[in-house]
Amino acid sequence: MKKVFLIMMLVFGSFGYSQKVSDSVFVKSQNLYRELTVSLPPSYKIDPKRTYPLLFLLDGDYLFDPFEGAIKYGYYWDDLPELIIVGLSQDKERDADCTLDEATGLPEGTGADFFEFIGGELIPYLQKKYRISPFKIIAGHDVTASFLNLYLYKDAPLFNAYISLSPELGLEMETRIAERLAGFKQNIFYYQSSSDGDIKKMKEKITTLDTNIKAVLNPSLNYKYDDFKEASHYSLVLYSIPSALYHFFASYQPISTTEFQEKIVKLESGYVTYLKNKYDILEKTLSIKLNIRINDFKAIEAAILKNKAYPELEQLAQLSRKMYPKTMLGDYQMALFYENTGDLKNAARYYLNAFQLQPVGSLTKDMMLDKATELKAQLKK
């Protein structure tokens, strides 16, 4: 299954998800320009007021394409949101960028300059030029994966989410990172990965960090660790990328069959509240404001009907009218309410009202007319 996913990820990498552009930013401390690759989402030009989460990639030379491919694939199935992807080229500067003081484990020299450049120059530049939402992700591999953890040492972290791919952890990071993650009150997302074919001395510190993070009792922390079998230090990257993204954006995904069966249908009440909360959490934690999907409305409708919680159809109809005022969805749900509570006259009236509005999803004008005709025939008997 993993191999199939990887193949599909690469295939979708050739489709037109985004506008890819080259950019550069001037580094004052080094008196030179650093090269960037930027991928803008499909709706970027269509919706000029919309903002998007940022995915910032260290090692952009080789991480950009696999990350972009995974996001294209997830976006195609509406499992991942649109993101602004920025990859920083580090081909020749990588070691200098990640220079740390051996005594403190903190950036020094060119490493300190690079650390300040990202927070003080690069991110502000990107925020000014592109429509970036408050939710920002950073990702890196081995040396750069270690380096990105340094932003967790700040009282107000620069990023909300961290993707650390087989990190070559610096001095005492296996304890320091866990301590930092334990103290944050704001939502923080953290992912790290390794493999059974990884470099031994690196993996030992990674597994120690995993143990320490799992001991953290912080409800604001969203953490996942993958230890891939039969993968190398390099191939684990392709396994890790979709795992990290799908984990971070789990709340974005539409209601699945599993979610429906294991969470929603089992509720005794509060189906509409569950739906509202799902999208409120998405906006609060990931800064993504999204109209409730039609299929999610239908899932909640199905749960209400299955559990005969018919009064909630009125609440659902109110929400539908707010989200899709020109469509027949709200009137259709009101018709369902009246039909299932025995008021066939009002049910027929709402089906006819729905007939005059725009079809949506699987709802059609023929369906509304047929239902109204059927109920009117029953009333004449």
Question: What can be said about this structure in brief?
Answer:
The chain is of the alpha/beta class.
Class per helix and strand makeup: alpha/beta
CATH class bucket of the largest domain: Alpha Beta
Order of helices and strands: HEEEHEHHEHEHEHEHHHHHHHH
Number of DSSP strand runs: 8
CATH architecture of the largest domain: 3-Layer(aba) Sandwich
Average of pLDDT: 93
Give a description of the structure:
The protein has helices at 2-12, 60-76, 94-97, 110-129, 143-148, 173-183, 200-214, 236-248, 257-264, 271-286, 294-306, 312-323, 329-340, 344-355, 365-380, and strands spanning 19-27, 32-40, 52-57, 84-88, 132-141, 161-165, 188-197, 221-232. Mean pLDDT is 93; it is low at 1-16. The N and C termini lie far apart (57 Å). Strand 5 (132-141), helix 5 (143-148) and strand 6 form a beta-alpha-beta unit. The protein is of the alpha/beta class and 381 residues long. It is elongated, with a radius of gyration of 25 Å.
Task: List its salient traits.
single chain, 381 residues, alpha/beta, Rossmann fold, Serine Threonine Protein Phosphatase 5, Tetratricopeptide repeat, 2 domains, eight-stranded mixed beta sheet, 8 strands, 49% helix, disordered N terminus
Task: Indicate the topology.
Layout: H1 2-12, E1 19-27, E2 32-40, E3 52-57, H2 60-76, E4 84-88, H3 94-97, H4 110-129, E5 132-141, H5 143-148, E6 161-165, H6 173-183, E7 188-197, H7 200-214, E8 221-232, H8 236-248, H9 257-264, H10 271-286, H11 294-306, H12 312-323, H13 329-340, H14 344-355, H15 365-380
Parallel strand pairs: 3-4, 3-5, 5-6, 6-7, 7-8
Antiparallel strand pairs: 1-2, 2-4
Helix pairs in contact: 1-2, 2-8, 6-7, 11-12, 12-13, 13-14, 14-15
